[in-house]
Amino acid sequence: MSELPPCPKCQSPYVYEDGELLICPECAHEWGRGVSEEALDHKIIRDANGAELKDGDTVTVIKDLKVKGSSSVVKVGTKVKNIRLVDGDHDIDCKVPGIGQMGLKSEFVKKVAE
Predict the structure, then answer these.
(1) Are the C-beta atoms of residues 87 and 43 closer than 8 Å to each other?
(2) Closest by alpha carbon to 76, among 67, 66, 59, 64?
(3) In a domain, 47, yes or no
(4) Per-residue pLDDT tens for 81-99?
(5) How far apart are alpha carbons 24 and 95 in whole angstroms?
(6) Which of helix, strand or coil describes residue 92?
(7) For a Cys staple, 7 with which of 24, 30, 73, 108, CB 3.0–4.6 Å?
(8) Which residues form the Protein YjdM N-terminal domain (predicted)?
(9) Same domain, yes or no, for 64 and 19?
(10) What is the pLDDT of residue 11?
(11) How high is the pLDDT of residue 35?
């Protein structure tokens, strides 16, 4: 039987395999065999065309988006500068011109070539 490494989060020796993943039953941490922790912690967020987004990028809205709780609409072609990537369903935090601070889904924007 192969020797499994201890959990990188809590150092528990009770790690088990589930397919490609290693799982710690004590802290519920999951990681891949041979994959660095930095690579697992860094989630890649992509736009509608598959381009990787980073903090500070400029994006363009590709679809009219209704603003929840308001009669406002973010129109197609609206350019949003200096985005910030966050965890969650709406993975882009930004300030939309004419609307204000809001969260956008990355599937409704495309990266502007700089």
Answers:
(1) yes
(2) 64
(3) no
(4) 999 999 888 999 999 999 9
(5) 40
(6) strand
(7) 24
(8) 3-31
(9) no
(10) 87
(11) 55
